[in-house]
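Entry type: protein chain
Record version: 2
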Amino acid sequence: MTNPQAENINKQEERVYKILSSVYNVPSIPQVVMEVNNIIDDPKTSASILGRMISTDQGLVTKILTVANSPLHGIPRRVATIDFAIVVLGFNQVKNIVLALSMMESLKIIGDTKFDQKKYWLHSILTAAAAKKIADDLGYQASGEVFTAGLLHDLGIPIIYKFFNNEYKQIISSVSKEKISFLEAEEKFLGLTHQEVGKFLIDRWNLPIAIADVINFHHKPSEAENNRELTALVHLADFMTTRLMIGDFNWDSSSVLDPEIIEILRLGDTEYLENFIFSYRELFQEQIELINL
């Protein structure tokens, strides 16, 4: 005997994946990304050559300077030029930033006030910068990768808004009226969460598996089979924006901490973790003020 509810869920997932498959060709990565990648891979490339290339996109310049001047990076002097930003951040870090920012820009919903692009950007950059700072403080090696993963961790949310707008409205309404979490509402109306939607696109774009893992498990890193430390770092930074009430991104309002990150990141106990989180409050606030400027 067949289960009608299960059949409906399967049909819903099939429809979602079918639409997502068509998304693959919609947000094209800008030409500047391809050119930057080629330049960075050339051993003869200097900071000035790379700087001239990036300078063709003023929006990208502004965002990279924002990252370079982040209080969470701890650089003692102001970074005023793209050349100096490249020296400070390093070629690979700049490459990751260009890739992530260009992906976010390609998914931007132009002229629509129903999806708050500014809050989404604020939350993304704050989570990325915080994740990198925490990774550096804890001695995690691939902190550049942590930044990229942090920047893209909520990639699935604008995708849901742009390509599943009816479901997006139902999710928002359901969270407000039924007092359920966003993840529960996503499952209810899409059959998938924004984590799974984001991972699907990262896989289709052939980006690093580690980033796909972070996106897929950033709300529950203990469920990840691989890249658990990386995922836990982004999860912690993401949760800290809610715990410290900085960033004001309502999609994370119902987020809860995965207690197993204490063991994954070797953070001692609950009391130590609480003190650790609040030790970053001032840096988080400075970061938000800088971005708002």
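Comment: The chain has 17 helices and no strands.
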